[in-house]
Amino acid sequence: MADLLFTTGCPVIAVVRITGTWVLGAFFCHTLVYLEFVCMFAVIWTMTVISIDRFICIVKPNNCRISLKMAIAIVIVIWLFAFTSSIPMAAFFNVKSFSVDNSTIKICTLVWPQSTTVHVSVIFVSCLFLIGFVVPLSILSHNYYRVFRTFWKSKKTIHRKESRASQNVEDLIKCTSSGTKRRSARSYRVIRILVLLVLLFFLMWLPIFIAFIGVQYDGSYEYFKMHSWMLMTCAYFAFGNACVNPFVYVFINERFRLNILPCRKTRNGQPKSEELGSFTGSAS
Known about the structure:
Helix content is 74%, strand content 6%.
């Protein structure tokens, strides 16, 4: 749900790019930006909690498993955290007007309170970068690395036992040509998925956080200017992650693909009888 809500900001960006100015007023400047950051935090920390759940299930299977009630409580905590941590965005995002070529252009941007002693913007951007990127990336990398190590050790243990159990060359060849090859294919697939999860998070979320830091120093130096197309490109990467997540977490899941495969229809528009039977059988 967080992914879907996060992408609702795309039409707003399209309107601003077409009109060249902010036409939605001060209320939507506060509200829409606030909700975008809420969904962003919810998306990021949901992915982080998923990695924690996989870490517990695979690396420490004897520990307490996450029950349904606990999962609901965790989701509620994630959303409460997202709502509270994004409050500064609702408070400090305002509409500013600029005169350009005898016309007035309005933008929805961060307007921090002026202070000579405390740099509020620096504190907030630093906390945003840590809580929204550095900490989740560290947790993701640690958990999936431990999952990879556990998986790889179990794979070597199984292969060692099969080699010892094989009494002659023929048994070893049969074992290698059948079960071992299938397990090797699954092994490399799991490794690819784990690497893909971390890489996607790093590559698709890093640009927008760099943009947040860039906006902080925009105009402070003559050689550094934050152009609008740079910010839009970074935002597109973040929105793209919301589109990629369903494919990564659902469609590459083997059980999901096995269950959805029988839903394919024949030329007559009806499911194949043998596929339907296998589907109902697996469902039972």
